[in-house]
Design goal:
Number of helices: 6
Strand order of the largest sheet: 1-2
Radius of gyration: 24 Å
Distance between the termini: 23 Å
Strand content: under 5%
Length: 205
């Protein structure tokens, strides 16, 4: 699993999803709030209409982004509103399509999901690498004058070399478990995209 390309693509996807989720959330909250605040002046109406198209276009990018990184085939949902003859009919058709509002829901879900994924990614990898690095640190630091390796309140936590090696082995096993967890988070993210960014009856297994 550690040597699989898909695993690293999944981790890269989770890493990139964090800043993207923040950007989407800030953009949506700012745009929608601005539109609602100015709706009494009629200026807010075109802003809100523009926001509906904007989050739909962002959802198209997210669909391609998720498909490319996670290898999930998400059938694109057709936007029949663009085929309407008048601007007013196009807006009505766009607002009546479920994919318009499912795209909004997905982008809002992307924010907390991105935070959870990023925290899990950083925490799990940091702990795993830290444990694996204990034997290496022990080898270089155990006989260095003036350096107390893994000493807490005057007590050596890892006094023997075999204990340091054991911690490193535990770190390797924990890394494998972490990879499974991160792949699972990537799968959940892809599942959300597949459910919300494609129309019913057009999702592929």
């Amino acid at each position: 699993m550690i040597g699989e390309e898909k695993t690293y693509l999944n981790m890269l996807y989770l890493l990139i999803s964090f800043p993207l989720g923040i950007i989407y959330f800030v953009l949506l909250v700012t745009g929608i709030s601005l539109g609602l605040g100015l709706v009494t002046t009629l200026i807010g109406i075109p802003i809100l209409v523009f926001m509906t198209f904007l989050w739909y276009w962002i959802a198209i990018f997210e669909r391609q982004f998720t498909s490319s990184f996670l290898g999930i085939d998400i059938k694109s949902a057709k936007n029949n509103s663009l085929k309407q003859k008048t601007f007013w009919k196009m807006i009505k058709k766009h607002l009546s399509q479920p994919i318009t509002w499912k795209s909004l829901a997905y982008l809002f879900i992307k924010f907390p999901l991105g935070i959870v994924s990023f925290v899990a990614l950083v925490t799990l990898l940091s702990v795993s690498i830290g444990l694996i690095g204990v034997p290496i640190a022990y080898y270089f630091l155990w006989d260095v004058p003036g350096v107390d390796f893994m000493v807490i309140n005057g007590v050596s936590v890892i006094p023997q070399v075999w204990q340091a090696i054991l911690v490193g082995i535990i770190g390797v096993f924990f890394l494998f478990i972490s990879m499974h967890i991160l792949n699972g988070l990537a799968y959940v993210s892809g599942l959300f995209a597949k459910v919300l960014l494609s129309e019913p009856g057009k999702r592929r297994k």
